[in-house]
Specification:
The complex is a heterodimer of chains A (186) and B (626). Chain A has 186 residues and is of the alpha/beta class. Chain A has helices spanning 17-26, 37-40, 48-57, 74-83, 125-128, 130-138, 157-176, 180-185; strands at 4-8, 32-36, 60-66, 101-107, 142-143, 147-149. Chain B has two domains: 4-400, Na+/H+ antiporter like fold (Up-down Bundle); 419-606, NAD(P)-binding Rossmann-like Domain (Rossmann fold), CATH 3.40.50. Classes of the chains: A alpha/beta (186), B mainly alpha (626).
């Protein structure tokens, strides 16, 4: 049984129906830890020590956040800037994240169709996530395809509960399946 | 003009007229006093009828020099003095010996008897502690390279006084026999055998050290608790006078003894309080002393004997300057600093008045010799301050221009802190700890002697004293500091402090703790920009935690709290005008209620949490759906 760490960053979680459903679906599961970053660090003063300890224990890491202006909320970026230290996460002696799996769980107002080359946003969502992908790679982690809840402005309750259910299944899979890389890409 | 009051009026008036003019002209107070002395002396206005009167005043006011050395000692911690030992010994000793020897040789070559030459050489080797240190302090150069070097030389000269006085009686020529008064400079212990004298000198210094370490602290603490300011001043005077008396008893220089006591008290919490209490006495005494020097210049003698006296004076000044320049050069002083150092110390000091009188009594000097030397000395004391002004205003700027000084920043390291913290109770100590934790040391003042004691034991550098006194702030370094914090919970006190700072230290950024909104109003009306209401942050922080416990999101609460605080601070700025418009007969209580009402209704209108639309997508959804 692997440990799964969900790093959740939403500046106004109380107003996000979609994320409330997603988080609720994965709460209280064995070996799945959720770190609510905006609740832990309301003043952006991140404890590097605590974050690194949590990372060290986990085998699968989820960057869970809404997409604002084609990127993550500022505290998520601050987390990356501060926690992924040189000589700890990368560089000489930076071996502590090596071989861990990492994915983005993202919610976006824009629909799947908007995130296409011919769509309104001109690029696929994977292209907007390249910085995360490369960050993972620099830390010798295995970056897997994102879990994307698109069109959150128009999502229906049934669609949402379906999405929440598959999010839960995904994480349980990460926790229990033997071959993660194949499991996610399949 | 007779009578004490009339005399006092003349001296004070002369000082009040001359010194500010001299300062305006950039000449420093020393020259101002000297000119005032010349002005009221027997040869110009004639208020002082003879030089004898001037000399009497001079001797009486020499005590100012003693006080000055005590005050300088207070600013010099023992470990810093120890670091200077090499400088004092090498530089000071070589200056005294070389100058004395050269004057001696020149005297002998000029066919003056060797005894007289030696006596003159030894007297003239010494410089004027009063003039040099006063000028250095005024120009804030005590910590500059030339300031330190000057201080080292002067300290050595003060030590040299003892052997010089011991040596003079040995120079008596066969036909003259010393009278009893001739040995009057030494005190009670003269009748004792040699070993006992040495023992009592060591004993006296020991007494000063022991008292300084263990006696004065408890005494001052005890007096401070009575909260009578004049008693504290009296104890400060007692310390200095007592030590001087003890030193004279064993034939040591009182200046040296009180300097030692000052050094020992440099670590005491009462340091700044002592400084501010003694400073006016020192200033007045020194001022009188300089005036007395000015009034003793015998212009009749100078005019009748002009060539001799003027050439002697200039000769001495040039000789001392050259020797000091060479010494400065070996210590690698920059040219400008070296010139200040050498010319600054080039006069003959006040101590030589004592040796002339002594030599006269001993029969080494004839009356005419003594008179001539007195004139030379007083003249040199007047000329060097003028030379220094010239040097500072004309010569050094010219040199600096041609040399394009690169190493400007390095030389005068200011030892004063940038922050002065008044009040070290719960509020002030938290603040002080926070600053200290971030490497900012503040000069801390507190007026509770017990607390000062206790905090000192905990390793804080707290000084005893009342921050609303200008002199105390001055000695705490308000002139050099950039921020003054009042952490006192007494607004009247803070207001006094603000007024004082406005008047005397307008450059200081003043940061004030206020009890509540009404105190804040008063401070705002005085133009204070940085006001900290003591309850504001704590109560909002508590409110933040309440909201979190009720289930609000932490980051949202964090933002709302900040918004609320800004709103409250801004409302204050609006309400301060509102307060002025109210008729006077409306009670304070009524005003208070009205203000609360307007604040509350303002908050209702704003509905902070309801109106917080950040990150909301409702409007986007509406636009999408339409």
């Amino acid at each position: 049984m692997r440990k799964v760490l969900v790093l959740f960053a939403h500046p106004k979680f109380e107003h996000s129906k979609v994320n409330q459903a997603l988080i609720q679906a994965i709460s209280g599961l064995k070996n799945i830890e959720i770190r609510d970053l905006y609740e832990l660090y309301p003043d952006f003063n991140i404890s590097i020590q605590a974050e690194q300890e949590a990372l060290f224990e986990a085998e699968v890491i989820i960057w869970h956040h809404p997409i604002y202006w084609y990127s993550c909320p500022p505290l998520m970026k601050q987390w990356i800037d501060l926690v992924l230290e040189f000589a700890w996460a990368y560089g000489p002696g930076g071996i502590y994240l090596k071989g861990k799996y990492v994915i983005n769980t993202i919610t976006s107002g824009g629909s799947q169709e908007a995130y296409q080359i011919e769509g309104r946003n001109n690029y696929k969502i994977e292209d907007f996530l390249r910085p995360f992908e490369q960050t993972a790679r620099l830390c010798n982690m295995v970056y897997l395809p994102p879990f994307h809840v698109a069109g959150t402005h128009k999502i229906t309750d049934t669609e949402l509960s379906q999405k929440a259910k598959s999010y839960k299944e995904l994480l349980l899979g990460f926790r229990d399946q033997t071959d993660i890389a194949n499991y996610r890409t399949s | 003009m007779n009578g004490f009051l009339a005399n006092a009026i003349i001296y004070i008036l002369a000082a009040i007229v001359c010194v500010p003019i001299a300062k305006k002209l950039g000449m420093g107070s020393v020259l101002g006093y000297l000119i005032a002395g010349i002005l009221i002396g027997p040869y110009l206005l004639g208020f002082i009828t003879n030089e004898g009167q001037g000399q009497d005043i001079m001797h009486a006011t020499e005590f100012g020099v003693v006080m000055m050395l005590f005050l300088i000692g207070l600013e010099l911690e023992p470990k810093n003095l120890w670091k200077m030992r090499q400088l004092i010994l090498q530089i000071g000793l070589s200056q005294v010996l070389v100058t004395a020897a050269l004057i001696f040789v020149i005297g002998v070559l000029l066919d003056v008897s060797w005894q007289i030459s030696l006596a003159i050489g030894l007297s003239m080797a010494l410089s004027s502690t009063a003039i040099v240190l006063q000028s250095l302090k005024e120009k804030n150069q005590m910590n500059s390279p030339n300031g330190r070097l000057s201080f080292g030389v002067l300290l050595m000269q003060d030590i040299a006084v003892i052997p010089i006085l011991a040596l003079l009686p040995l120079l008596i020529t066969g036909d003259a026999t010393p009278t009893d008064e001739a040995t009057g400079i030494h005190g009670l212990i003269d009748s004792l055998p040699g070993w006992a004298q040495t023992l009592s000198i060591v004993g006296a210094i020991g007494i000063v050290v022991v008292l300084g370490q263990f006696g004065f602290g408890p005494l001052l603490n005890w007096v401070a608790k009575s909260r009578l300011r004049e008693l504290f001043t009296a104890s400060a005077l007692l310390i200095v006078v007592g030590i001087s008396f003890l030193m004279e008893l064993v034939g040591l220089s009182p200046a040296l003894g009180s300097f030692l006591a000052g050094v020992i008290l440099a670590n005491s919490p009462y340091r700044h309080a002592l400084e501010s209490d003694l400073e006016p006495f020192k200033g007045l005494l020194l001022g009188l002393f300089f005036m007395a020097v000015g009034s003793t210049i015998n212009f009749n003698l100078i005019f009748t004997n002009a060539p001799v006296i003027i050439s002697l004076t200039l000769g001495i000044i040039i000789l001392k300057t050259v020797i000091l320049l060479i010494i400065g050069k070996t210590k690698k002083l920059r040219l400008t600093n070296n010139l200040s150092f050498a010319i600054g110390l080039s006069q003959v000091g006040e101590f030589s008045f004592v040796t002339y009188a002594f030599a006269l009594q001993l029969g080494i000097f004839a009356q005419s010799t003594s008179d001539t030397l007195m004139a030379v000395t007083a003249l040199s004391m007047t000329i060097t301050p003028i030379l220094i002004v010239l040097l500072d205003k004309v010569i050094n700027p010219a040199i600096s221009k041609t040399q394009k000084v690169l190493e400007k920043e390095m030389d005068s390291i200011d030892e004063h802190n940038k922050v002065i913290l008044v009040g070290f109770g719960h509020f002030g100590s938290t603040l002080g700890r926070f600053l200290r934790a971030n490497g900012v040391e503040a000069t801390i003042l507190d007026s509770d002697p017990d607390r000062v004691d206790y905090l000192r034991k905990m390793g804080f550098k707290v000084y005893f004293g009342d921050g609303t006194r200008g002199e105390l702030l001055h000695s705490a370094g308000a002139g050099q500091a950039s921020i003054l914090i009042s952490a006192i919970d007494n607004t009247e006190y803070s207001i006094k402090l603000v007024e004082l700072c406005k008047e005397e230290f307008p450059h200081l950024e003043v940061m004030i703790r206020a009890k509540n909104r009404y105190d804040a109003f008063e401070l705002m009306e005085m133009g204070v920009k940085n006001i900290y209401r003591e309850h504001l942050d704590t109560s909002i922080r508590m409110g933040e935690d309440v909201l979190k416990k009720l289930g609000f999101r932490a980051h949202t609460v964090h933002r709302l709290a900040k918004q609320f605080r800004d709103y409250d601070e801004n409302a204050l700025k609006v309400l301060v005008n509102f307060k002025d418009n109210k008729d006077e007969y409306i009670s304070k209580n009524r005003q208070q209620i009205e203000m609360q009402e307007s604040l509350l209704s303002g908050e209702l209108m704003r509905k902070f949490s309801v109106n917080d639309h950040t990150w909301d997508s409702d409007s986007i959804k509406e636009a999408d759906n339409s």
